[in-house]
Design brief:
CBS-domain; 18% strand; 6-stranded mixed sheet; Rossmann fold; 4-stranded parallel sheet; alpha/beta
Length: 455
């Protein structure tokens, strides 16, 4: 029987796959190290196990103890897995920007998860670093895994990821590209690889908003700003981040990270997370600067499954401005301009009769009228309401007041055309209000006209 004794034995030995589509416009070959194939779905299984095993050896973690950690999720997953097999309890402290999926996954392992604010200084007592430290001290048998300062973190990659890559590539690595979070992955792997080949180039990836890029370029610690991509970039310099092994740092934006993440799965079937999009994006940027064909290894840290409600959700992407709007910069005004007779908006008012409305619709060749009451739009009346009224017991002389519908949505002339698709649901008509005044009306047929013209 070729079976592992437990889940911890199958950590590592992850596949390396040549990128054939996303990176096809550069001469160099970019190979992707798929760390999501680890049993906890990320690269962090490796340091998590190393941290637990080293703490057991040193006596810092005793039987029945509690592992406490400040983690953005993936290290927690690795620690929770090790804890499950080895019989420890776990408490994880996470910043509040982390995805729900990550929090729920940790709870699935029976861990306690404490969520802390992101927007506080690292030394603030509410920061997730401080809270984790306090919980480890206060919990009997508590052991702080301390991935930001625990040498077992980079050591795992020195002992494991580095040798694995060297063997897998037969030593044919020119460039190694990795994100920098705690720095464990890049520092440990790079140390091993550079010991084998000092000529090898190591490229770190940093999100805009993190302090690493400025620190690498100037040696100065600048002010961090928030960003949405998860798992890498920092607002402190952890002692596990060894810049001595880093030759270059490439900066990426949230938008670049997310769009490359989506391209990886759609074009190559590689379902990885946002930091993986960052890595392939940075590898491509670096490769574009080269005038020779090199072998570039890009380490993809985790799985896409944890980002379904963010990176892979079109609404979230659009709300955050990461999706190119299909209609570009076109606005509601552009639709109105194209619309014949849009300059005049015919209306009716409450108290008018059905006969008045029929007459106005006939004269102007329109099938619906906004209804105004005391200067405000209160609804719409359309030809099918009128017809239903007459086919029922209604008379021409009745007022329209009971026929007024409120199935409309309001837009402003400056709104992007992209909002229309969602607003047209349930047969609504769009009323364009400009500075409180009714400026136009957009029906489905107006939108169809606009789309037809665009095509
Ligand atoms: C999704 C993701 N990407 C990148 C990293 C960065 O790895 P490291 O902490 O080894 O620098 C992490 C670390 O937790 C991560 O969870």
């Amino acid at each position: 029987m070729n079976a592992a004794k437990n889940i911890l034995e199958v950590i590592g030995n992850t596949p390396l796959v040549l990128s054939h589509s996303v990176a096809s416009d550069v001469d160099s070959d970019i190979y992707l190290k798929l760390e999501y194939v680890n049993p906890g779905s990320s690269v962090k299984d490796r340091p998590a196990l190393q941290i637990v095993e080293d703490a057991e050896k040193s006596g810092e973690l005793e039987p029945g103890g509690t592992i406490v950690e400040a983690t953005s999720g993936n290290t927690g997953m690795g620690l929770a897995m090790a804890a499950a097999v080895k019989g420890y309890d776990c408490i994880f402290v996470m910043p509040d920007k982390m995805s729900d999926e990550k929090i729920k996954a940790l709870r699935a392992f029976g861990a306690r998860v404490v969520v802390c604010p992101t927007a506080v200084e690292p030394d603030d007592p509410r920061s997730y670093y401080s809270v984790a430290r306090r919980l480890a001290e206060e919990t009997p048998g508590g052991f702080l895994a301390n991935q930001y300062h625990n040498p077992s973190n980079p050591r795992a990659h020195y002992l494991d990821t580095g040798p694995e890559l060297w063997e897998q590539t037969g030593g044919e690595i020119d460039v190694f590209v990795a994100t920098m979070g705690t720095g464990g992955t890049i520092s440990g792997t790079a140390k091993y690889l550079k010991e084998q080949n000092p000529e090898l180039t190591v490229v770190g990836v940093d999100p805009i908003g993190s302090i690493y890029y400025d620190y690498f370029k100037t040696g100065k610690i600048t002010e961090a700003h928030s960003y949405l991509v998860e798992g890498f970039g920092e607002d402190i310099i952890p002692s596990t981040m060894h810049f001595d092994y880093v030759d270059e740092v490439v900066r990426v934006s949230d938008k670049e990270c997310f769009r490359y993440t989506r391209r990886l799965v759609r074009e190559e079937g590689i379902f990885a997370g946002g930091s993986s999009g960052a890595v392939i994006c940075a590898a491509i940027k670096y490769a574009r600067r080269l005038d020779e064909k090199l072998n570039i290894i890009a380490l993809l840290p985790d799985s896409g499954a944890r980002y379904l409600s963010k990176i892979f959700d079109d609404d979230w992407m659009r709300e955050n401005g990461f999706l190119e709007d299909r209609w570009g910069d076109a606005t509601i005004s552009d639709i109105l301009v194209n619309k014949e007779g849009a300059q005049t908006v015919f209306t009716t008012t409450t108290g008018e009769t059905v006969a008045d409305v029929i007459e106005r619709m006939k004269v102007h060749g329109i099938s619906q009228l906004p209804v105004i009451d005391d200067g405000e739009v209160v609804g719409l009346i359309n030809e099918s309401d009128v017809l239903d009224h007459l086919l029922g017991d209604g008379a021409h002389g009745d007022t329209i007041d009971t026929l007024v519908e409120t199935s409309f949505a309001v837009v402003e002339p400056s709104d992007r055309v992209g909002v229309i698709g969602d607003l047209f649901g349930d047969g609504r008509v769009l009323l364009v209000i400009d500075g409180g005044e009714l400026a136009g009306i957009i029906t489905k047929i107006d939108f169809i006209d606009f789309v037809t013209n665009q095509l």
